[in-house]
Amino acid sequence: MKSLFKTVIIKTLPVMTGYIALGIGFGILFSSKGYGIIPSVLMAALVYAGSMQYVAINLISGGASLITTAITTLLVNARHLFYGISMLEKYKGAGKKKPYLIFALTDETYSLLCTDDYPKDIDKGKYQLLVSLFNHIYWVTGCALGSVIGSAIPFNTAGIDFCMTALFVTIFTEQWLSTKQHIPAIIGLLAAIICLLIFGADAFLISTMVLISVALILLKPWLLKEENNG
To answer: Based on the domain organization, do 153 and 211 belong to the same domain?
Structure first.
């Protein structure tokens, strides 16, 4: 168990630093709209969607309808449909842990669990659960801290929401440096650029995910061959 906790802490350390910073940013922004620590913690614990929580700040403060909020949530988090499909095999046999694992599958948790980069003597199910749980705790902690800080200290909140983009760049860089196979990452970048140019900033996300999925499905036999040869 000690080895398991040590491995999980080491693996989730980059996510912890990002989630604490991002959570603080969210808590400060949410506090600037007049919401205290309890709403902040509840949203962090129950919604647990970094980018959507940032979007939700303006939706909530602007009085958006439930339909608008639901559609926006679906569009912002549509990428998780693709994440979930790719994790079906890895979560097979998860048993009672599966509902929470599905709920807690964020971008960063996915990046840690989509590979089997952990000691083979560690229980896979416990590793998946603890990685998901620790990341969840980091996010809730960050949001709570941000709410407290935002309530105690006046802040100019301009630009704080960029920290979400910064975390994605950090995760991408870490994944690039930790693997020798860069073709999937290049496909992702090219697909994002192409769809951004064609569909614009407000509508490129879903088309990008579809294009990436199709490209990876078509290239899967070749990628697996290259991985085995490497």
So the answer is: no
